[in-house]
Every structure is written in structure tokens, then in C-alpha cells.
Amino acid sequence: MGLTITLVLLIVVALAFDFMNGLHDAANSIATIVSTRVLKPQYAVVWAAAFNFGAFFIFGVHVADTIGKGLVDPNIVDDAMIFGALGGAIAWNAITWWGGIPSSSSHALIGGMVGAGVAKAGFSSIIWGGLSKTIYAIVLSPFVGFSLALLLVLLVSWAFVRSSPAFADKFSRKSQLVSAALYSLGHGSNDAQKTAGLIAVLLYSHGVYSEFTVPTWVILSCYTVMGIGTLLGGWRIVHTMGSKITRLTPMQGSCAETAGAITLFGATYMGIPVSTTHTITAAIVGVGAAKRVSAVRWNVATGIVYAWVITMPAAAVIAGLCYWLGKAVF
């Protein structure tokens, strides 16, 4: 079919979701470094956005491949289904952003894909191997982030046990610039690729490409738009992530970001679309718990977990409804 007005409009909507992803998940990249006062908010978002975009030059397209052809049979994809998937993801993102809830844009999009696919062709349209890998990661990535952060903060505390508090604080503030940059690279590498995978399967369904492929211009566009979204920030969620869960020191912030970055790098390499939100939140809880269990506001953390649990099914239901709306329009 080639390029059509409908295809262009859907690509624009997909990029709008990518922009919202950057806006919604900006807190993932900057909450810790803002709350520890290592960088002012306006400088932190520039720092995060630059490294979000910088991921384009480092990582491949493994996650995009999983989203584009590893969740739903790409042969059943059409305009109404993509509209439904994006509608479900964007609607859920808007709801959670308004409430200041750090839910997962990634799992909203995955839920949207699954919900729209089931609405069109039933459960037989789902590629269960790819979906199960993603669902396992919902549990595993926060656990890895939590464990790594807990281990790192204990190791760093031991390493500086004989150092003066002033020296340790000065070192931690400098190291947090590096850890925030690494985390932003991980955020960009995993999240921008999800939208790229969706656009790629849309192009394939329109016959623009004879086989599923992720063009360079698609990846570049997604990284750019996500960087712009991050640049504009997500201040409601920054407050929840940076101070409501636990009060962070520069050393704790550096450990949390490093743990999150390691987790995201590994997931991206394996092509697993994990949640950057889940990962960094668990890491923040980990560094707080390393100090003492009571340092974590468990009521806030529990509320965030509830949002994680309902994100995929909620986005899927909304996506199913949006699919039927899209079917009437397209």
C-alpha cells in the first residue's frame, strides 16, 4: 500500500506516545539527582535528555524487534489495531501522569498491543513466548534492581567507612552525575525502541517494507522525540520518586541509578522490554531499605505496586475499546 495519510497520522500518534513516554518517565532519569540536589531540575532534564538521545549511537534494535514481532502476530496488524494499542497506552499514561503515579509506559504499550490484538483476532493472535518473557521481566527486573541497589549501597558504605563524611559526600555527588547519565542511556535504549518496534510493524503492515525491519530513521525519530519529552520533564512524578518513597543522599542516589542502569543494559541486550519505572523504583526502595526498613514509606511503595499490577490489563481493556472505535474510523 505504501505511504498514506492514515499511515502518516498513525506514525505521528506513535511519536506523540513516545513524547509522552519521555514526559511521563522523565522522573526515572532525574528524580534521584534532583532530590539529592546534585543538579537543579532544569539542568537535570537537559542532562537526562542528552543521554536518552545518546543511546541511539550505542544500542541495537533487539527490544524493537520484540515489540514489533514478538508479542502479536505481525500479519494481523492493521491501522485500527495500532490505533487501539496507542489509544490504550496514551490514555493510561495520561491517567497515571495526572495522579502522579509512576506506572510503566512500557507495560501500558504492551498491554495496549495485546488488548487490541485480542479485540481483533482473539487470543490466538498472541505470541505467548514473547509475552511470557515480558511478564517474567515484570517481576524479575524490580527484584534485580532492588538487589543490586542494596548490594551497591552496602559495598560503597564499607568502602568509605574510614573516609570523612565531607569527602564521601563530595565523591558521591560527582559519581551521581555519571550514574544518572548511565541510567538515562538505559532508559533511552529500552523505552525509545518500544515505539520504534510499533512503527516498524505498522510500516510492514502497509507494505512499505516487504519484511519486518526497523529503519534507522524510525529509531532516530523515536530517540529524538523521547529526548524532547524528557527535556520538558514530569514534575508530578519526580516528587513521588525523589522524596515520597524515601529520602535520598547523593551516595544512595548514585547506587540506585547504577543498579537501574545495569539492569536496563542487560534487558536491552537480551531484547526484553522491561519497565524503567519498575526498575528505578525498586532500586530506590533497595537503597532506602539498606539504611533501615523504616526509612522506606511502604504505604507509598505499595500504592505504586498496585499501579504496576493493573497497568497492563487496564491499558489492554482501553485498547480493546479504542480498537473498535478505530475500526469504525479506518
Order of helices and strands: HHHHHHHHHHHH
Structural class call reads mainly alpha
The number of E-state strands comes to 0
> What oligomeric arrangement do these chains adopt?
single chain
Compute the CA-based radius of gyration: 19 Å
How far from one another are the termini?
14 Å
Using the alpha-carbon principal axes, give the shape.
elongated
Q: What's the total helix number?
A: 12
Strand percentage, roughly? under 5%
Helix content: over 70%
Total tally of structural domains = 1
Nearest-integer average pLDDT: 83
Low-confidence stretches: none
Largest sheet: none
Transmembrane segments: 44-64, 76-95, 107-128, 135-161, 217-238, 259-285, 305-326
Subcellular location: Membrane
Membrane topology: Multi-pass membrane protein
GO molecular function, one term: phosphate transmembrane transporter activity
Q: How would you characterize this protein structure?
A:
- It is built from 12 helices and no strands.
- The protein has one domain (5-329).
- Helix 1 packs parallel to helix 11, helix 4 (79-98) packs antiparallel against helix 5 (105-121) and helix 7 (165-205) packs across helix 8.
- The chain is elongated.
- It has helices at 5-35, 41-54, 62-69, 79-98, 105-121, 128-159, 165-205, 216-232, 235-244, 250-270, 276-291, 298-329.
- It has 330 residues and is an all-alpha fold.
Features:
single chain; 330 residues; elongated; mainly alpha; 12 helices
Architecture blueprint of SSEs:
Blueprint: H1 5-35, H2 41-54, H3 62-69, H4 79-98, H5 105-121, H6 128-159, H7 165-205, H8 216-232, H9 235-244, H10 250-270, H11 276-291, H12 298-329
Helix pairs in contact: 1-2, 1-4, 1-7, 1-8, 1-9, 1-11, 2-7, 2-8, 3-7, 4-5, 4-12, 5-12, 6-10, 6-11, 7-8, 7-10, 10-11
Keywords: Membrane, Transmembrane, Transmembrane helix, Transport
Organism: Aestuariivirga litoralis
GO molecular function: phosphate transmembrane transporter activity
